[in-house]
Amino acid sequence: MQHENGRIFREAWISGVKKHYPGEPKPGYITPWEETPEWEREAAAAVSAQVSNFVGVSHRNTSKLSREQKGRFVALCWIAQIHKHFEDPKPSYVADWPELPEWQQQTDADIFEAIERTQ
User: Fold this and answer.
1) pLDDT tens column, 33-66
2) Strand, coil or helix: what is 69?
3) How far is CA 53 from CA 46, 50, 65, in A?
4) Is the separation of the CB atoms in 75 and 50 below 8 Å?
5) Which long-range contacts (CB under 8 A, 24 or more apart) does 16-22 make?
6) What highest taxon heads this organism's lineage (predicted)?
7) Does the reported pTM lie above 0.90?
8) What is the DSSP code (8-state) at residue 62?
9) Position 15 pLDDT exceeds 90
10) Residue 76 burial (CB < 10 Å; 0-12/13-18/19+)?
């Protein structure tokens, strides 16, 4: 189940990148689930579980959140995973919401909504 949740996250990420990224995305951005590094699959599953739990404990009232609020939640959960998996991550890997490019903000909101729909 954990990997299935991670797959939902990854597929929503790839879909969002293809939709929102300006120009041609880096190959690593659209790597299929099966080829995604193990740490990244674990991180995707963890964030997916956090979003699922959040939707559940709020009794599905997350539909009332703005897209920005949804995206911020995903971004913050992802930053925690980066710190879990990397001792000294690149600053761009742990950038706060205002520093994220628009395409990434929109993709993070798409991820939340994709997970939300599965609840």
Assistant:
1) 999 999 999 999 999 999 999 999 999 899 999 9
2) helix
3) 10, 5, 15
4) no
5) 16/103, 16/106, 16/107, 16/108, 16/110, 16/111, 17/103, 17/107, 19/106, 19/107, 19/110, 20/102, 20/103, 20/104, 20/106, 20/107, 20/110, 21/103, 21/107, 22/103
6) Bacteria
7) yes
8) G
9) yes
10) middle
For residues 98 and 63, the answer to whether their CB atoms sit within 8 Å is: no
Instruction: Please work out, in degrees rounded to the nearest 5, the angle formed at the alpha carbon of residue 93 by the alpha carbons of 24 and 49.
Output: 95
CA angle 69, 98, 25 (to 5 degrees): 95
Q: pLDDT-derived band of residue 5, with 50, 70 and 90 as boundaries?
A: confident
Which pair of tokens denotes residue 40?
């990244």
Domain residue ranges of the chain, discontinuous segments joined by +? 2-117
